Amino acid sequence: MAGGPLSTTAEVLAVRGVGAFSGVTLSVGEVADRHRPGQFLSVADPDPTRLLRRSVQVHRAAGPGVRPGTLELVMDPGDVLADRLAVGDAWPVIGPLGRPFALPKEPVTCLLAGAGAHAAPLLGLADRLAERGCTVHLLLGGADGSRVLPSHDVRRAVRSTTVVTDDGSMGRHGSIASVLGETVERTGAAVVYAGAPTSTLHEVAIAAEAAGAWSQAVLDGEHPCGTGLCHGCPVPVVGEDGVGRTVRGCAEGPVFRGDRVRWHDLTEKGGGR
Fold this sequence. Notes:
- The protein has 273 residues and is α/β, with parallel strands linked by helices.
- The chain has six helices and 15 strands.
- The protein has a seven-stranded mixed β-sheet with strand order 10-9-8-7-11-12-15, with helices on both faces. The chain has a six-stranded antiparallel β-barrel with strand order 1-2-5-4-3-6. It has a two-stranded antiparallel ribbon with strand order 13-14.
- Strand 13 and strand 14 form a beta hairpin.
- Helix 4 packs parallel to helix 5.
C-alpha cells in the first residue's frame, strides 16, 4: 500500500553482521508497507546529546526472507549508529521519505551497479523489478572481498552477478565504473540503477550514457530534517528545460537521473558521502 511518511517508534529486532557490514532489522508496521526501493528513513540518534536526525538507506522491505512489517538496514563496518543500537530498543523513525527509483513501464533488462554498503537499496529493487518481469543483472564492488555486499538473498531475482574489487581479492580487479560499459553491452541493459559514493556515481552515469543506457542514481547524503524544510541537502541539477537549479536531496531525491545531476558542482560542494 502506497502512502506518505509516518512517524513511529520502531523496535530493534536484530543487530547482526552482514558480511563485513552491520545489519539492523526494525519492526515498523505500516512504514514497511509504504516503503519503495530508494526511499530512506529519518532517525533519531540514540545518543540524546546529538540533536540532529540522520537519514539511513533501507536495504530491503517485504520480500523473500523479510518478515512483514519490518525493514532491514545495512551500514558500514563500525558505524556508530549501529553500535548504539541493541535488540529491544525503541527507536523514533520517520518514513518512508524521498522519491524512490522509477520502475520501467514495460519489462526490460536492468543492471544494478552498487559499491559497498551503498548497494544496499539495490537488492530490494531487484525483487521489485523481477516481479515486473524485468531481467535483472547485478554488478557489485568493494575495496576488497569483505566490502562486497552479500547478495545471496536475491539470487532468484537476478540472471547474473558480476563482482569487482579494488584489490582483486574477489571477482575481477577494478571498480564498478571501470567495467560498467562492457557489462551493459554484455547484458543488453536498457536501464542502470546505481548506488555508490558520489565520485563513482558520476563515473557510472558517464559510462551508462556512453553505452546507450538510461541511469538512475541514489545519492546517500546528509538530510538533517529529511522532509525538505531545512534545505540542508542541496543537489545541483539540470532541469527538463535545460536550466541549472538546486533542489533538495531529500524531497526531490535521493534518486536522480544520472544525466540530470551536475556532478562536478556536487563534488566541489562536498555533496553526498
